[in-house]
Design a protein that fits this description.
single chain, 274 residues, alpha+beta, Metallo-beta-lactamase, Chain A, seven-stranded mixed beta sheet, six-stranded mixed beta sheet, 7 helices, globular, Metallo-B-lactamas
Length: 274
């Protein structure tokens, strides 16, 4: 019995004798099946290959970015957030080995794991078991969990405070249970928002975007973007990290609002005439 991992999205499945016939994450319209077809691996195989490693980057006080080299699956970045003796892993990556465990332990371990949406569930159960940590997923995305675990806590409602100053907010949009993290104590108490790609920083770091599907270029309706932007107005932040190691360092709250205004204008046909 093995826990197979989809090589395209990097999400791990429950134990089975044979590899699954399909990846429900990739076959859904927000993702895609590789043009080379559905392929599978396992964490043991990845470790034994000796090809992959996790790279830790210190972004600022209390924030460590963790990414896989060479890139695997979707290629997202996870963040280890350290706040007053509480360590939170925000989003997850597929690869984990003994070197990773040692490095994370040196940084204080993991007290909890929180996920923005199903594309980044990856090997979340492996991480949770390694550090004896709970996993927080919004109940609206329950059906997308490919490896069930008693460590998963399906929270409900619009917000959940994990610790004073660390709050999860359900935003919807990219996924119904799409979640972002507000860290009020970050950036010298000016606040940081971790958004996965519920809100994604674009090539021009002064702007963000909001999409139903990024690889398939399916936009969100203007009413959803307006709702997300209105919710964000209530959060405390001046800096924003997305899932792909991109950062808006200053005035992030203003840049999210002007990006939403531009996006809505484009959808409604008032931004340009072409």
């Amino acid at each position: 019995m093995k826990n197979y991992i989809c090589e395209t999205c990097g999400v791990q499945y429950d134990c089975s004798i044979e590899a699954p016939d399909r990846c429900m994450i990739c076959e859904e319209e927000r993702q895609f099946v590789s043009v080379e077809g559905q392929t599978w691996t396992t964490l043991d195989a990845m470790v034994n290959e000796g090809v992959y490693k996790n790279v830790f980057d210190i972004e600022e006080e209390g924030v460590h970015a963790i990414s896989i080299e060479p890139s695997f699956g979707i290629g997202q970045t996870a963040y280890l957030i350290q706040d007053q003796n509480f360590c939170l892993l925000w989003d997850c990556i597929t690869y984990i080995d003994q070197e990773t465990l040692k490095r994370v332990e040196e940084l204080g371990g993991i007290d909890a794991i929180a996920l923005s949406h199903p594309h980044y569930y990856s090997t979340q159960v492996e991480w949770a078991e390694a550090f004896n940590a709970p996993i927080y997923i919004h109940e609206d995305d329950r059906k997308w969990v490919t490896r069930p675990s008693e460590r998963i806590i399906f929270w409900s409602g619009e917000s959940l405070q994990l610790k004073q100053g660390l709050t999860l907010h359900r935003m919807g949009g990219h996924f119904k249970g799409g979640t972002i993290l507000e860290w009020q104590n970050g950036n010298n108490h000016k606040g940081i928002l971790f958004t996965g790609d519920i809100i994604r920083i674009v090539a021009d770091r002064d702007w963000v975007s909001f999409m139903y599907s990024y690889p398939n270029f399916i936009p969100l309706p203007s009413s959803t973007v307006e709702r997300v932007a209105d919710r964000v107005k209530d959060f405390k932040f001046t800096r924003l990290y997305d899932a792909f190691h991109r950062v808006i360092s200053e005035e992030a709250e203003l840049k999210v609002q002007k990006s939403a205004h531009r996006y809505i204008g484009a959808l409604n046909g008032t931004l340009f005439d072409t």
